[in-house]
Structure formats: structure tokens, C-alpha cells
Amino acid sequence: MRPVEAAPERAERDGAAVDEELVVELAATGRAVLVSAGESILEALLDAGVDVPFSCMEGICGSCRTTVLDGVPRHRDSVLTAAERAAGDSILVCCSGAEGGRIVLDL
Amino acid sequence: MLTAAENETLTRVGPDTPMGRMLRRFWLPICTAAQLPGPDGDPLRLRLLGESFVVFRDSAGRVGILDEFCMHRGVSLALGRVENCGIRCLYHGWQFAVDGTIMDTPNHGNPRFRERLKAPAFPVLEAGGLVWTYLGDPKRQPPPPRYGFMTGPDSNRVVIRLNTAANYLQLYEGGTDSSHVGILHSNSANPSWMFHRFTPVEDEDNPGALAVSDNVPALDLEDTAFGYHYVAKRQGPPERDGTPTHSIRVTPVLLPVGRIIPAPAYQFFVFEVPQSDTVTSTYIVAHGERPIDRGRILALMGLDDPRFWNDRDCDFRADWSNRLGQDRARLHESWTGFGGIEQEDAVLAVSMGPIVDRTKEHVVAADRAVLHLRARLLESVRRHEDGLDPIGLDVIDYTRVRSLPDTTIPVGQPWQALVPGNADVPGSAAVAG
Fold first, then answer.
1. Distance between CA atoms of B271 and B281, rounded to whole angstroms?
2. Min CA distance, A90 vs chain B (Å)?
3. Beta strand pairing status for B130-133 and B258-262?
4. From CA B19, how far away is CA B378, in angstroms rounded?
5. Does an H or E element contain A101, and which?
6. Min CA distance, B112 vs chain A (Å)?
């Protein structure tokens, strides 16, 4: 049994958004979606009409888990295990961001 | 008879079945308007095509049809509070409007969640004393159907819902089987049967009334855009000059679940709507050009007996603990030991078991219209699985489709001329089967 990770503090959850501007590339269509600082990847995708499953919007339920094809996620969820975080091949788009301002998703 | 595979195709109606997919292309009744009498009344927990729904009337009188189970964590909304223009789950107080809008989530403060998501909700048509819905792909939602009973004064219409523990096809087949009318419904069709003589029933309200005694009717069928119609021809009395006649009775079969049964004064629209593979809601809408008495229709149907049926839960009660309610002490004067047309039809459907094994039957020529019902349904399912529209999908206006009560015509005279609205109903080329 893996240790239960502490839930992020309230202030951190309320800031379920990227710290700096970010481009999300969608592999299926080749589209690029701009995520502004202070916005979440999920909201930017939904606003762009991309159908992504989601529920809690705070990184606790796992509904929005999406496969990462390129780029390095900056994880802020409380769902992925340490090994999954280190693998870097999936991301909870409701609250996490990316290093280097770019990430490619299997969408 | 059918193959086991054909019987499966015809009788299984869940979301992942060929018949279930075909039926989901149509508007279907889910309950009666009378079951939702007023704003903020008790919600209904209903089944349709193997799925579960909660149906309620909100504070403004609008009807909502939602998934039964709360989208949060699955508690039944049928226990919910109907208030303030929505239904509220007891568990955490989430409240939903009739269109699925999330109005309130007391344990989740994020307004973006409520704005971004909706509870699964289904379109509603309240018409003709029925509440209709459409469970299929929203992008392919057809216009709602129009029937004659949807207009005119409410007093000209009687609406009955009857939930029976039998697959829908057992009940539907009974409605396309003219030869059983003069036998099973002997007490309605020929009340002097026990004296071995025929007395025609002079009753304008009675769909079981037959003008003549002939239990081997010749059947003639014709495909139409809505499915097919058929005529049962019984030997009639010769005309004065000796010309032989037929007493004819015409029944239109409105795929995928409807038919119209004739009585002299009224048309009986009947819809056999599957709640699941093994439970059917039968909707009977009797309608005519003059006021109609509900108590009289319930008595003719045998639904005035509270042991079998009541208007509140609409469930037809019959089980083998008391031989389905049969009164054998009355068999000398009652052909069946039951009473009334629908009571008799429903009891027989239950007696067959939940889904009858049609590989074992021995059908005869008098069953032609039943066989054609199966053939048309299977054809419609095949068309749909092949990417075409199912039979009847593009028929929207049924207002000119008629059944014909017993009518005497000279032998050889075309019967179709007496129901002209049936053949030229606007619709597709689905006629050519």
C-alpha cells in the first residue's frame, strides 16, 4: 500500500492553473491551444471546443487524465503515484502545467 | 417459427442491441401526463428500453427526464426533493433543472464546474395525454410525431398505461392477430357463445365487437410508409340480390411499437413500449369525435378490477400464486374466467413467460399478420444496422391513418379505398420491402 499523499492546501487548489503561458499541441488534429497564465489547460481546451472528460477540476478524481506524447508535465494533482509522476507520460489537465511552455497531448 | 437468433434480435432492447439502437431513433412515451399531476409533485422512477430515469414536473409545470442516478455519486434522484424549479438529490443537495443544468452543488464551491457540466437530460414532448421522450443521438433527433388524439378537447380522449411483466413483442403480436378476437375475447365479441350461437354486439365503444361469426378470417396485407396495414375478411351476410359480402376490419401497424384498433365510435391507439426486455408499458389512447367515458373504457378493458390494475402505479398484477387471477368457477359463462379485453390480452402475454421461445411454435395461415410484424421489424433493424433509416422514421403526421371497424363490402371490392389516408401518408420509400 502506497502512502496517501496529503491533499494540496486550499490556496494551492484554488490556483489550479498554469503559472506561465503555455502552448498545448493536440496530436490527433495538429491543433495548438494557447493557455494563458492563470488559466487551466482543461478550461483552455474546453473553450476551444475540445471534448475532454473531467469532474472535480482540482486534481483529485483522475477523470481528466490524458496521455502526454511530448514535453514534461509539471504535476500539481493528488492522483498520480510517485512512479507515474516520474514517468511523465500522463497529466491531469485540470490542474497541472508543463515545463518549458509546451506540451503535446494525445487528444 | 423463428430462429433463436431472430428471436433474440426481436426481443432484446438494451442500448447495445440492434433492436435497442433502432428503437432509440424514435420518440416513445415514457409515462402519462396524468402521472405527473401538478408542479413539484412526487417524481416518477421509470424504465425505458432497459435504462432508468427520474421524471418530474418542476415548479413551473415543465417536465424533466434525467438519468435516475445522480451524476455526483449515483444516488437515485427518485428520492429527491422537487422544489424551486428543479430536483435536488438528498445525499449532498445537488440540484438539477429539467434540462440537466446543475443549479446547486452545496458541497462543491467551484462555479465553473456547474457551468461546464450538465446532468444527462432527455427531450420532452407532452402531447395527447402522454409524456414522450427521445433517447437517441441528439444530432439525429426527429421531429415529434403528430397523432389525431393530440388535438381537440381532452374529454374526447381516454389514456391508459398498463405495465405488464412480458416482452413487448408478445403484446404487440396480440394486436396484429385478428383471429384471436372472436375466440379469446368471446365474451366481448359474442356474448351468447355458451349457447353455440352468434349474437353480434351492438356497442359502439367496444373494440372487441365483431359483426359476424367467422374465426378463420382471410388476411390481406399491404406495406405502407409507417409499417403495414392489414384487413381481416370474414364472411358477411349476402346482399338482397345475393351478392356475397365480406365483413372487413382494417388495422394499421405503426412501426416500431404502435397500432390502431377499431371500435365503431373510437380509434384505439396502442403503443407497446419496452421498459426492459421483460416488462412492457402498454399505452392505450381511445379517441374519437365525441366525449368518451373513462369508466366505460376501463370496464371494457377489464381494468376496472383493482385486483388486476389501478391508475396510480399502472402495474398489471397477475402471478401464478392464484393462477394469474383466473376464476374457473365462472368458466360456464365466461370463456376465459377473466374479464375484459386488455385483462385477457395481458394475462395471456404473462402466461407465455417473460420472453417466449418462438423456435417451438407452430404458426398457421391466420397468423400471417403476426409473421409480417416480425418480418417488418427485422427488416427495419437490418436497414438501420446497414446505415439506413428504420421503417417509419420519416412519418411524422399520422393524423390521417385510420383503422376501420367491421364494415360490410361486396366480395372483391378493394378495401384500401375505405382507408385512403393509410397508403398516401407522407413518408419514405420503405414501402418497397
1. 8
2. 22
3. unpaired
4. 8
5. strand A97-105
6. 9
A20 Cβ neighbours under 8 A, 6+ residues apart = A37, A97, A101
User: B113 and A57: CB-CB below 8 Å?
Assistant: yes
Burial annotation B213-238 (CB, 10 A radius, 16+ → b, else e): bbbebebbbbbbbbbbbbbbbbbbee
Q: Are B181 and B209 in contact (CB under 8 A)?
A: no
pLDDT per residue as tens digits for the range B210-258? 777 888 889 999 999 999 999 999 999 899 999 999 999 999 999 999 9
Query: Do residues A40 and A95 lie in contact, with contact meaning Cβ atoms separated by under 8 Å?
Result: yes
Residues of B in contact with A54 (CB under 8 A): 116-117
The C-alpha cell of B120 is what? 444527462
Q: Does any CB of chain B come closer than 8 Å to the CB of residue A54?
A: yes
Q: Which residues of A touch B110 (CB under 8 A)?
A: 57-58
Residue A93 distance to chain B (closest CA, Å): 14
For the entire predicted model, the pTM comes to: 0.91
Residue with cell 398516401: B424
**Contact call for A46 and B117, based on CB within 8 A:** no
Q: Interface pTM (ipTM) of the complex?
A: 0.75
> What are the residue ranges of helices labelled H in B136-286?
168-174, 186-189
Of B49, B23, B9, which Cα lies nearest the Cα of B258?
B23
Average pLDDT of the residues in B125-136: 98
Q: What is the pLDDT of residue B197?
A: 86
